[in-house]
Amino acid sequence: MAHIIVVGNEKGGSGKSTTSMHVATALVRMGHRVGALDLDLRQRSFGRYVENRRAYLARAGLDLPSPDYRELPEAVAGGQGENPFDQRLTAAVAALDSEMDYIIIDCPGSHTRLSQVAHSLADTLITPLNDSFVDFDLLARIDSETGKVVGPSIYAEMVWGARQLRAQAGLKPIDWIVLRNRLGAQAMHNKKKVGAALEDLSRRIGFRVVPGFSERVIFRELFPRGLTLLDLKDTGVDQLNLSNIAARQELRDLMTALRLPGVQIAF
């Protein structure tokens, strides 16, 4: 059975698609078979990332390691009362399960039925989070006077529900990872406050906090060509600048922190 990695966050602009593409490509480059699904049926940022990659590689005459991205199949009429969204996702995962070592599922930046079902399938859940209290509100409500956590958010409650469903089905618990993205060099006081709040909340509702990607221009430049940090040398960039080298180290640290089964970091 494939190990399912779900990248989920109900707020847009947190770096879900960038995270999905880099994790997927890193796994493929390390020799794993990786399937990929995008559940954002409207924006399809992850899907467009892969399409950009295919188009660029075709133009450049390159053959670089890439995840096996697939569209959700159409729902079959008369599916014995099964929700059509459940049916499409179940069919897509079933088609990939026996062929792949890992399946990466990128969820939309909103609450949908597809996203809810995907979270219940996750062996590993990655929640990218911009490093601010605006995005922290995704996980928990904060008392504005004391800064203390008042209670979990709707998203945290959805993850809790997914965990309960997995427990009832006798499946192993979700390894939930909150990824601190867009960490800046400035605003150290705010960064420390967000970090302390995350560490406190992680003990209360059960997730691991991992540093993600800093704010870098390179990520905006990679998307139109469908490339990742690991592809630069294969596309004629012989000399990486310091920012690119630092970004590659962030990716290496992320892949190590994920603790995925069978993964030996080799880049």
TrEMBL record:
InterPro entries: DNA_Partitioning_ATPase, MipZ, P-loop_NTPase. It comes from the Bacteria. This is Division plane positioning ATPase MipZ.
